[in-house]
Amino acid sequence: MSTTMSFSPLTALRLTLPALALGAGMGMAQAQESADGADSAEVEVLAEINGETITARELDQLVSQQTQGQSEIPPPQRRQFLEEIINLMLLAQAGDAAGIDENPDVAAQLNNDRRRTLAQGFVRQLTETEPVAESVLRDRYDEIYGGEAPREYKARHILVSDGEQAAALIDRLDSGEAFVELAGQYSEDGTSRDGGDLGWFAPGDMVEPFSAAVAELEPGEVTDEPVETRFGFHVIRLDDTRETDAPAFSDVAGQLRMSIVNERIQAELGSLREEADIDYEAAWAQPDNG
């Protein structure tokens, strides 16, 4: 998809869905690099501040986060990172003493940080237990690129939260009204500023119902009924298509691996949701309310 397109809920899938896998992947790399010394790192205390300890593992995690995964840094830099943790700990201790954790906003952030950390740890465990084999990557590559030349699409959409409204917009388009004008007036995402323009994208860039609907269109055609996705109801117009060269396996192996990991996360999440007791307390949050 074009890097200049306006933000849309469709692109949110590509931004948020890989987040857990990406965080877990970074953790996997760090864990692999320090596996030999894991046991000693867990108990090695580097400093004690007002009775609270800082371990080598905690320092290693901070270094990895701040250096994008680097584990070996010069001793002076390592000491700087240790001083950073000490400063962080002193401020945290002061905040704890001041009862900052009782502030509702702070409590909410602490809860979300804890959930994110546990979720990434669980995802990391999933990926370590069943790593994506190269044969699986090769099969996925052949599935996507082994047939006819890959095709990209250029399309516009109008996204609304109500199916009847989407159907009414299709009727108005059939009556001759301009797609760009209706998208600018009614689309409920950032693409409204550009007349619903989504730029160029590959089928895998979009959620399945959307990409499947686009693939059925000829340039200039509009979907004859609304396309429902998790984001709402879409009215789609295909503007153009183009064939692209298949990339080398090495160029897309990482992307394919991430895609497969995401699918596994989604499958696991689907099972967890089926087994979970989810009670929506807020009226607006009810699944049937759009």
Task: Provide the fold topology.
Blueprint: H1 9-33, H2 38-43, E1 45-49, E2 52-55, H3 56-66, H4 75-97, H5 104-129, H6 134-145, E3 151-160, H7 163-174, H8 179-186, E4 197-201, H9 208-215, E5 227-229, E6 232-243, H10 249-275
Antiparallel strand pairs: 1-2, 3-4, 3-6, 5-6
Protein name: peptidylprolyl isomerase
Signal peptide: 1-31
Keywords: Isomerase, Rotamase, Signal
Write a structural description.
The protein has 290 residues and is of the alpha+beta class. The protein has a domain at 151-243: Chitinase A, domain 3 (Roll). Helix content is 54%, strand content 13%. It contains ten helices and six strands, in the order ααββααααβααβαββα. It has helices at residues 9-33, 38-43, 56-66, 75-97, 104-129, 134-145, 163-174, 179-186, 208-215, 249-275, and strands at 45-49, 52-55, 151-160, 197-201, 227-229, 232-243. The chain has a four-stranded antiparallel β-sheet with strand order 4-3-6-5, with helices on both faces. Strands 1-2 form a two-stranded antiparallel sheet. Helix 6 (134-145) crosses helix 10 (249-275). Residues 1-7, 11-16 and 26-41 have low confidence and may be disordered.
Write a concise synopsis of the structure shown.
The chain is 54% helix and 13% strand.
What features would you highlight for this structure?
four-stranded antiparallel β-sheet; alpha+beta; extended; PrsA_foldase; peptidyl-prolyl cis-trans isomerase activity; 290 residues; rotamase; peptidylprolyl isomerase; PPIase_dom_sf; 6 strands; 13% strand; disordered N terminus; 54% helix; two-stranded antiparallel sheet; Chitinase A, domain 3
